[in-house]
Each structure stands twice: as C-alpha cells, then as structure tokens.
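Onboarding guide, step 5: your first structure request.
Type a short instruction followed by the sequence, for example:

Predict the 3D structure of this protein.
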Amino acid sequence: MHDGISLEKRGIPTVVVVSEPFIGNANTMARLLGMTDYRYVALPHPISSLDRKEIDELVRRHFPQVLELLLARPKT
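The system replies with structure tokens like these:
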C-alpha cells in the first residue's frame, strides 16, 4: 500500500493488489497515509497454492477491476 499510494501521490497510476487476509492492513495503511478512500484490488486467499490455470482464471476475473482503477484517478 505504501508504495502504491506514494506513486499515486506523484501522479503515477498504480493499482495495489492484496489478498483478503490483508484488507485490514491495507485500510490501516491507507488511513495512515491520508488516503482513506484509496481503492485497491482484493484477491481471494491463498494465492501461492494455485496452479497456472487457476492463476490465469484469477487474472481474467480481476483484470477489469485493475483496469478500472488504473483509469480512475483517486483524489490525492
């Protein structure tokens, strides 16, 4: 979150991706960095145990959200 928010504050479009157990941490970091409305993509957990086919499906399912966030500029 820190890197993504820092880049966004510099005008560099960035999408942060977290897995569901880290949503609380992501929200806390966004609040601490002054961007409580920062949007990110949350993926189901776990990811590391997925095979290639499952990862491809995960990417297909979540890519539209990533693209939407890249095109919609958050308020800094």
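Each response can be followed by summary notes, for example: The two ends are 14 Å apart (CA to CA).
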